[in-house]
Amino acid sequence: MIKECQACGQTHLLAATTASNGGYGPNLLPGTGSWRPARFEVVVCGKCGYVHWFVQKEDLDKVKRSKHFRPYRPS
């Protein structure tokens, strides 16, 4: 996990855990389960407001096994 904001370098960070899909929102980590989909740790910088998203460590294998993800190759 991070110790400082990637945008401004401050260390005043706030965190929360949230599901990757919601009843009214998009499925942000498709293919990671219907009953207990992968979760995010959302970290917000208390100084500049920059938001950092991380898949929970215990859920990372779900993302790796999902057929919806492929290796990233920038254009």
Topology:
Layout (H helix, E strand, L loop, with lengths): L12 E7 L19 E7 L5 E5 L4 H6 L10
Antiparallel strand pairs: 1-2, 2-3
Can you describe what's shown?
The chain starts with 12 loop residues before the first strand and ends in a 10-residue tail after the last helix. The chain has 75 residues and is mainly beta. It has one helix at residues 60-65, and strands at 13-19, 39-45, 51-55. A three-stranded antiparallel β-sheet has the order 1-2-3, with no helix packed on it. It contains one helix and three strands, in the order E-E-E-H. The longest helix has 6 residues, at 60-65. The model has no long low-confidence stretch (mean pLDDT 92).
Average pLDDT, to the nearest integer?
92
Order of adjacent strands in the largest pleated sheet? 1-2-3
Report how far apart the termini are: 28 Å
- The run of helices and strands is EEEH
- Looking at the chains present, what oligomeric state does this protein adopt? single chain
Shape: globular
Helix content: under 10%
| DSSP summary: helix tally | 1
Helix/strand/pairing category: mainly beta
Which blocks of ≥5 consecutive residues have pLDDT under 50? none
Strand content: 25-35%
The largest pleated sheet is described as: 3 strands, antiparallel
Please tally the β strands and state the result.
Answer: 3
Give the radius of gyration.
14 Å
